[in-house]
Structure formats: C-alpha cells, structure tokens
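Model it.
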Amino acid sequence: MMLVLPQILTQTTARACLDNLSGTLRGLAQPDVAVDSRALRQFDSAALAVLLALRRQALAAGKSMSVNGLPARLGDLARLYGVVELLGVASGSSASDRASSLP
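Modeled.
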C-alpha cells in the first residue's frame, strides 16, 4: 500500500493530513513505505514538515520510506532547507533528477 498525499497540502491542512497518513502508516505491515506525492498541486513548506514527520514515524517503526513523484518546486524547497536527502526521493522523481545534476 502506498501513502498518497492530497492535492492541497498547506499549513491549513497539514495537521489533518498528517493525522490521516499517520494512522494509515501505523496499520502497514510491510517494511518499506512509499509516499505518492504526484497529486500535489498546491503546497507550501508544511508539506515538507508532513513528509519529515512521516519519515520519523516510519523509522521509529523500523520501516524505510521513499517519496515518489515529488513536484520539482517541492524538491527545490527541500534542497533550500537542506532536507532533500532525508526524504528518500525515489529514482525517476523530478526532484531527484534535478538534484543529481547539481554540483
């Protein structure tokens, strides 16, 4: 099962989104958790906070986490804040493609 981010993930919706995804994460039995971020259309830095919180929860539960389909603009924010490596951006995602071309 994949965790799916909503189309809108901003400071206003972050708490509800995290609560929802955290509940789903707790119910997952598999050791590898994938987060699908392809639906994201409107977001701010709160989306990074949600992803990082999910990562902490996954690691605490002994799971690994990867992010698929990270929008380029969110990848830019992650690099600006120095957290792109923490997100486990899956190969082929736009942000990882761009990150690999950075010096």
